Structures are given as C-alpha cells and as structure tokens.
Request: fold
Amino acid sequence: MLKMDARMGFEDEHHIFRDQVRKFFDKELTPHLLRWEQEGICDRGFWNACGDAGLLCPNVPEEYGGLGLDFRYNAVVAEELAYADCVLGLAVHSDIVCHYIMHYGTEEQKRTWLPKMVSGEAVAAIGMTEPGAGSDLKSIVTSAVRDGDEYVINGSKIYITNGQHADFVMLACKTDRAAGARGVSLIIVEANRPGYVKGRNLDKAGQHHADTSELFFNDVRVPVTNLLGEEGKGFAYMMTELPQERLAVAVGTQAAAQRAFDITVDFVKNRKAFGGTVFDLQNTRFVLAGLATKLQVGWAHLDWSIIRHVAGKLTSAEASAGKLYHSELQGEVCDAGVQLHGGAGYMTEYAISRLWRDARVTRIYGGTSEIMKELIARSL
Reply:
C-alpha cells in the first residue's frame, strides 16, 4: 500500500478519493488481472465501471459531465493503478486525449465526446506512431486530404494503446505534405467509419493485459468538423500537451517502482538462506537502502512536479527530466527486485517478474530516454 503521510501537495479530499480508488481496484481489477494477462486484453466493462466510479477524466468540467477536479486526482488514479500492477491505458484516455479535446475542441466536440469519455461509454486512443515514424512526429505520412466538406484519410498507425477497445482515435495526420511540422493536423476519427480497420492486438514482451494495436485507414471519410483546433497546428498542440503526458508517465513509473521495492522487501525478509534470511545479508540491505534513498528522492520530485503542473508552471524540460528519472528508476528497482528474488524472480507467478517485464517499455514510449536527454539539453 502506498504511504501517503509524507506526501506534499495532497489534501484530505485527495486521500479520501484515493481510498475509494483503492477499494474499487481491489474489487474490480485485481481479481481479473491474471485472466486479462492471459487473454491479452481487459474486459470492456471495466471501462464502464471506472466511469461509474468517477475514475475517468476527473478534470472535465461539470457542464460536460465531469467532476471539475485538478490533475492531482488524475495522479491518484494513475498511482493506484500502477501500484496494483496494472498498465491499462486509462492515462491515454483521461490525461492525454481528454485534455486535447478540452483545450482545442469545438463546443460541439466537447459536448459529443467528453460526457462519453467520463462515463466510459467511449474509449479514446491517440494515433501518433507509425511504422516509419516514432519519436520524430514530423515524419508521419498518414494523410488527410480535403475533399469538399470531408477529409479523406489514408495511412496506418502502430503501437496504439487502447487500439482494440477505442471508439475513436485522435489521429495525427499530414494535411500538407510540403509543410513539415506545420502540415500536421489532429483529426477525430470514429472507429465505426468505413475504411477504419483495427489490426491485430500486438504480441508484446510485457504489459499483456493492455491492448496495443495496429490501425489502418483506407479512404476513411470524416467531416471537416472532426478537425481538432486549426489545420496545421497539430504539431504545436502536441508539443504544448507533452508535459502532462510525460508527467503522467512519471507518476505511473514511480508508483510501479515503489510496488516492486515493497514486494522485494517482503520477499527477502521471508526467504531463508544461510541460517537466516536474504535480508540479513549485508549486500541485500545495502542494495535496498540505496533504492529506498532514490525512491524517497523520487517521491519528493514527483510531488514538486505535480504541484508545479497544477499551478501551470511545469516546463517541457522539467517534465522531460521527470519522465527520464522516474522511468529509469523503475527499471533499476525492478531489475534489482528480480535479482534479489533469485530464480523465483524469473517466474511469471511472482509479481516482480511481471513488473520487471512491464517496466522495460516505459523508457521508450512517451519519448525515449535518449529523446528526453536531448530535450533537457536544449534547455540548458
């Protein structure tokens, strides 16, 4: 269980909300997680249950069916989800797509999608990555060509979180191939449009319970009213919204690192070795002491980042540094946890194995660690 007594920036109402979130996951998530791991996808009804419990898009204003809360509530959901060994794409839905619609959507788009996202009736995905374009978003080739009052979309996306369940995708397209970054636009594409094809649920090394998909767009026609914001401003919008996306990754990775640490401490204190326990060995205690120190620093930094973000002050470089630090720390803690578990750590029946396996990709998605370093360096 995450300890909240030393947290900064969280108040009594956040702790009450956390208790509700924790009880909800204990009932609606934990009993099903291993089955979802085997099936490669969670039950669609889980999204509706999350909506009923008020866990989706807590920032949405009340006029659009939301609770009108700040990002700290999003952080509570993300932390408890990660601590429950779960990596489902709630953050993509609530922390990313939702905020694009809130900030750049028309009134009609807000009233159409935000209430459905809050209730779980509509699951959202974001379509950026392509087979030939990952971190370099300017290189996407999926096109949206204007034809009267419609856009005709052709192309494909890959590694799309929530791709199987998604009822719509916020799609990054080239509306002007010759304009580079200024030719990128964001368009809402409903999954029931002719020509929109959901490919296979990708077979990943980890995060098996979270669906990740290929998406194909073959002459998909959408009305021009599905354009999010202004044409050609998509790249600028993505750069503006990236701090919250990277902070959301940092939140989840820090909580997952803490989970890996906690179960490792419990394991070594109970594992017998050389007439005592594994914890009695000095090397074990020193490794755990070092990790405990880094986790303590991590929580302080995370709280600082959340406070700055709620105040509208978190910079892109600061968010990039947070994403870099916390995802790298997650990898370090999970790897050490496997080592201290010994052979048991490599068995999938032990949670540390799944945590270690699931952690590897967090240094890649949301911008690789190398890209984070480049962005931080540009601010120096």
Notes: Strands lie at 124-127, 143-147, 150-161, 168-174, 184-190, 196-201, 212-223, 227-228, 272-273, 276-277. The CA atoms of residues 317 and 375 lie 6 Å apart.
